[in-house]
Amino acid sequence: MHLIGSPSSITRVLDDINSISLITLVIDETSNVTREKHTAIYWKRLFKQISVCHAIEDIEINQQTQQSWGHEHYSLSISWFLPILKLNKMKRLVINGSALSGSDDDFRLLACAFPKLKELGVSPGYYSQGRTLACLLYFSQECPDLQEIRISLASSVLLNLDAVKKLPPHTIPVNHQHPLKKLYIHSQFGQIQPAQMVQVAQFLDLIFPNLAILETYSSPTAVEISNWTGVQQTREALQATTWLDGFRQTTSEMEHGERGI
Question: Is the pTM of this model over 0.85?
Answer without folding.
Answer: no
